[in-house]
């Protein structure tokens, strides 16, 4: 497979995880592309304007990329902490619309500011890797790390609190869960993942502009999670990988590919209302691997 | 004084279209509690239908290159017909993207994704059939009306006056229908509580279809009007309106019909007031408003607050 496409798919999976985190807590936040755009802009600005980061070698040093990631995480984290306090008072569709508004305001501001390059954006972002395969390996490692963290989160106390809030916020609150802080945690984690992903994407794409964080991206990333499933971290990863690859894989059908893409996200939720990947699916899969216990194995006498 | 009047006219005529657009969102939201993300695409379809019905020819890039209807209708006839065609499209969207979810009792929020899928299909279908070029509806189709009118010293484009008049007419008709007719009252009942309404003998499914039909009709008319006053800038031109419509919707209050009108006019006026050297920020106006309103008054200007129920 083409390493460039693989890299895009991995980035899609990371963005899917970013949407998944608040959704696991029952919060439909579509702010991911906004934080993604902030991460990308941070990387684009730092790597093109700060000579100290460029290093002496022929390629851009990976340590600088890691530094950019840390700064992007800091910025998006602080921003999410402040904004989250305010927007998370909203529920359901209201939260979704407020976060769409945030993303759009951010896009229009980036489009009009001088130092972000206006409508053209920032060009010539230096490359830390010689080939797309290098990016793919780096992003795969990042994805694996974040998947592992998500897996840990699903099993520990804050993660379980998030699931409780998703199932019933009032009941969770009555059980002594601090719902405001838990929701904020999910929102901030989502922003961190999106911001870090933006840094990688900016280097990979070589240029960055305001269009990369728009409404379309909000909805596409949401489609990753709804399609893949929001009960376990594997869902958004699966959805992100598949739906990012789909328009490319459909290239042979030519002009029809976006129509087919639309049809897939239209039909997906009808047949898989909980997403394709669900915990039940795992259980039945595990059962099948172990083999169905027969009556004899259970010690039942004939 | 003339300047102010000019500003007022510019703002109100844009705002009236926003209101028409947002009303379509609101009608669907009030009965289903979800946003129809295919609404922008239906609006775009309305613009293209109007263009074809006035006898416009398709450009060279689509599958239908060179297609032209053998007749050329005047604008006042083409617009409502385009509205009806858009209503038909909206009904199809309801059938494929909303009803299956209802039948299966799925999470209503899934409709955000399915309707988006329907929107993606529609927009790309337009692109496939008629190409990505922009079209404009010539003002000549209005008949022998002057291009501009002089109202109290302000020079106002006839198109703007028409926009205001048609939108006003539609809004009045809609509010009479909602408050005065049996089906309008059924719509109110369903938006209050679909299950109770069903128990009381209202066919909720039918009411939802009516809401979609009217919503599509309004979107199609709004599309045709924008096509006339500005131009049809390609298959994607409805998306920007779709987003602004969200702003209008929330500003007025989700599900509130007078709210959508008020919200449309406020945002239209506010955009008209953005000075020329800051015009790049114009698109952020409605979202700035939206954000503030959500934080201060989440139920919108004329909406009702939601309560926490166990």
User: How do the SSEs of chain B run, as a string of H and E?
Assistant: HHHHEEHHHHHHH
Number of domains of chain B: 1
| Measured distance between first and last alpha carbons of chain B | 55 Å
Largest interface: A-B, 44 and 47 residues
Strand order of the largest sheet of chain B: 1-2
What share of residues of chain B is helical? Answer: 55-70%
Q: Please, what is the oligomeric state?
A: heterodimer
Rg value of chain B: 19 Å
What is the number of E strands of chain B?
Answer: 2
Tell me what you see in this structure.
The complex is a heterodimer of chains A (302) and B (310). Chain A is mostly helical. Chain A has one domain (3-215). Chain A contains twelve helices and no strands. Chain A is globular, with a radius of gyration of 21 Å. Mean pLDDT of chain A is 86; it is low at 294-302. Chain B has 310 residues and is mainly alpha-helical. Chain B has one domain (9-243). The longest helix of chain B is centred in the N-terminal third of the chain and has 31 residues, at 2-32. The model of chain B has no long low-confidence stretch (mean pLDDT 85). The interface between A and B is large, with 44 and 47 residues.
Describe the SSE topology.
The complex is a heterodimer of chains A (302) and B (310).
Chain A: H1 3-24, H2 32-49, H3 62-87, H4 92-112, H5 132-155, H6 157-167, H7 169-174, H8 179-205, H9 215-228, H10 234-249, H11 257-271, H12 279-290
Helix pairs in contact in A: 1-5, 1-8, 1-9, 1-10, 2-3, 2-4, 2-8, 3-8, 5-6, 6-8, 9-10, 10-11
Chain B: H1 2-32, H2 39-53, H3 75-104, H4 110-130, E1 148-151, E2 154-157, H5 158-180, H6 182-192, H7 194-199, H8 204-229, H9 237-252, H10 257-272, H11 282-296
Antiparallel strand pairs in B: 1-2
Helix pairs in contact in B: 1-5, 1-6, 1-8, 1-9, 1-10, 2-3, 2-4, 2-8, 2-9, 3-4, 3-8, 5-6, 5-8, 6-8, 9-10, 9-11
């Amino acid at each position: 497979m083409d390493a460039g496409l693989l890299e895009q798919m991995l980035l899609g999976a990371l963005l899917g995880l970013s949407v998944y985190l608040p959704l696991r807590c029952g919060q439909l936040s579509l702010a991911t592309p906004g934080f993604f755009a902030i991460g990308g802009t941070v990387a684009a600005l730092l790597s093109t304007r700060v000579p100290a980061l460029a290093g002496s070698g022929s390629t851009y040093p990976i340590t600088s990329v890691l530094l950019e990631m840390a700064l992007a995480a800091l910025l998006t984290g602080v921003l999410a902490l402040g904004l989250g306090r305010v927007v998370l008072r909203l529920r359901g569709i209201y939260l979704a619309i407020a976060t769409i508004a945030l993303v759009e305001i951010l896009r229009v501001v980036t489009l009009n500011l001088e130092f972000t390059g206006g409508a053209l954006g920032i060009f010539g972002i230096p490359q830390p890797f010689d080939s797309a395969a290098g990016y793919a390996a780096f992003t795969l490692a990042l994805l694996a790390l974040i998947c592992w963290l998500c897996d840990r989160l699903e099993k520990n106390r804050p993660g379980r609190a998030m699931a409780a809030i998703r199932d019933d916020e009032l009941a969770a609150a009555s059980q002594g869960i601090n719902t405001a802080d838990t929701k904020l945690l999910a929102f901030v984690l989502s922003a961190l993942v999106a911001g870090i992903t933006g840094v990688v994407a900016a280097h990979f794409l070589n240029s960055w502009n305001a269009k990369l964080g728009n409404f379309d991206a909000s909805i596409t990333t949401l489609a990753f999670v709804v399609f893949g499933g929001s009960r376990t971290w594997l869902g958004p990863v699966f959805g992100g990988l598949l739906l990012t690859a789909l328009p490319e894989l459909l290239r042979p059908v030519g002009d029809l590919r976006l129509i087919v893409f639309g049809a897939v996200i239209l039909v997906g939720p009808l047949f898989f209302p909980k997403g394709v990947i669900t915990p039940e699916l795992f259980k039945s899969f595990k059962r099948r691997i172990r083999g169905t216990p027969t009556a004899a194995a259970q010690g039942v006498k004939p | 004084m003339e300047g102010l009047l000019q500003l007022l006219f510019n703002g109100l005529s844009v705002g009236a279209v926003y209101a028409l657009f947002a009303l379509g969102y609101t009608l669907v939201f009030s009965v289903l509690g979800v946003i129809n993300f295919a609404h922008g695409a239906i609006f775009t379809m309305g613009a293209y239908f109007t263009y074809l019905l006035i006898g416009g020819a398709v450009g060279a890039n689509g599958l239908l290159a060179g297609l032209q209807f053998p007749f050329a209708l005047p604008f006042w006839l083409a617009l409502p017909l385009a509205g009806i065609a858009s209503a038909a499209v909206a009904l199809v969207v309801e059938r494929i993207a909303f009803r299956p979810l209802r039948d299966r009792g799925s999470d209503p929020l899934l409709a955000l994704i399915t309707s988006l899928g329907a929107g993606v299909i529609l927009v790309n279908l337009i692109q496939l059939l008629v190409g990505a070029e922009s079209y404009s509806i010539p003002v000549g189709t209005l008949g022998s009306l002057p291009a501009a009118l002089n109202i109290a010293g302000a020079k106002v484009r006839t198109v703007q006056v028409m926009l205001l008049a048609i939108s006003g007419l539609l809004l009045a008709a809609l509010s009479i229908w909602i408050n005065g007719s049996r089906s309008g009252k059924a719509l109110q009942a369903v938006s209050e509580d679909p299950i109770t309404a069903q128990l009381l003998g209202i066919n909720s499914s039918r009411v939802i279809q009516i809401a979609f039909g009217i919503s599509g009709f309004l979107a199609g008319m709004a599309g045709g009007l924008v096509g006339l006053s500005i131009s049809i800038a390609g298959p994607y031109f409805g998306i920007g309106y779709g987003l602004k419509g969200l702003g209008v919707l929330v500003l007025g209050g989700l599900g509130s019909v007078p709210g959508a009108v008020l919200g449309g006019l406020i945002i239209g006026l506010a955009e008209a007031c953005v000075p020329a050297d800051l015009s790049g920020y114009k698109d952020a106006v409605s979202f700035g408003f939206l954000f503030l309103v959500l934080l201060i008054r989440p139920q919108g200007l004329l909406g009702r607050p939601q309560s926490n129920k166990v």
